[in-house]
Write a structure and sequence with these properties.
With 267 residues, this protein is an alpha/beta fold. It is built from seven helices and twelve strands. It is globular and about 50 Å long. The protein starts with 5 loop residues before the first strand and ends in a 15-residue tail after the last strand.
Length: 267
């Protein structure tokens, strides 16, 4: 039996700094393998984002155990947590957090500068363009955020998460600011990462998006419970790389489109 990539055992967390401490996670158990996708549903304030913060090593549990690839990392130092976060995780949020003065390619390159130290320019450019190509927008590499739609900006954010080749993608309400059609396309892009061996945890309020994951869990009363979500009535809106056209249909982004060779990915 393969070792789980992520394993949480009886994890607890209490929110402090208020008049009265509030238990938010009261005994979370979670097992996640490479190539697996899990959706987490729950009402606002139930602790979904807190749980993602613990998995992504931005915070520590008060109790329980956290195993990453079989190694106990429950009480690792902040420095080691930062190194693991950079090497193992990719993060996608509802807000895109793109730098407005940089192109799509340059925004993606920032993850390499901040996360993997210095890379030769050519190698950095190749990795950036490959990540943009994975999400179907290599042809938009020179565009700044103001020239991109909301869905395209979120794809840039996903490419930024993928460029370091993480083993785990944590997505916190990544479609919350998007319309339904664009949100469905973004979920397709995220789901495709599991085909390359990534583990995916998707926090969402949308049961249709949750139904596209391999498993669905609901966070209730501080504990994860299996959730049965009705099957989708229709197939996914389109293949990865499909973009909505002006007429409401789908058009395919060039899978191997590349910006001009003269374009430099600045860091």
């Amino acid at each position: 039996m393969t070792t789980p990539l992520v394993q949480l055992i009886g994890v607890t967390k209490t929110l402090r700094g208020q008049e009265q401490p509030r238990p938010i996670l009261t005994g979370v158990d979670l097992t996640l393998h490479s190539g697996e996708s899990v959706a987490i549903l729950g009402r606002s304030g139930s602790g979904k984002s807190t749980l993602l913060s613990l998995i992504g090593l931005f915070d520590r549990p008060d109790g329980g155990q956290y195993l990453l690839d079989g190694q106990d990392i429950t009480r690792i130092s902040d420095g080691k947590a930062a190194a693991l976060r950079s090497a193992q995780f990719g993060f996608v949020f509802q807000r895109f957090f793109l730098l407005k003065h940089l192109t799509a390619a340059q925004n993606v390159a920032m993850a390499l500068v901040n996360g993997q130290g210095w890379l030769p320019r050519r190698q950095r450019r190749e990795k950036v363009l490959a990540a943009l190509d994975q999400v179907g927008i290599a042809h938009l590499a020179k565009h700044r955020p103001a020239r991109l739609s909301g869905g395209e900006q979120q794809r840039v954010a996903i490419a930024r998460a993928l460029v370091r080749e993480p083993r785990i993608i944590l997505a916190d309400e990544p479609t919350g600011a998007l319309d339904t059609e664009t949100g469905n396309l973004v979920v397709d892009v995220l789901r495709a990462t599991t085909e390359r061996g990534c583990a995916l945890v998707l926090v969402t309020h949308d049961p249709d998006h949750a139904a596209r994951m391999g498993r669905v869990l609901r966070l209730r009363d501080g504990v994860l419970h299996p959730e049965t979500v009705p099957a989708l009535s229709g197939a996914p809106t389109g293949p990865v790389g499909a973009l909505p056209d002006r007429g409401g249909g789908l058009t395919h982004a060039p899978r191997h489109a590349r910006p001009a060779e003269s374009e430099e990915v600045r860091a």
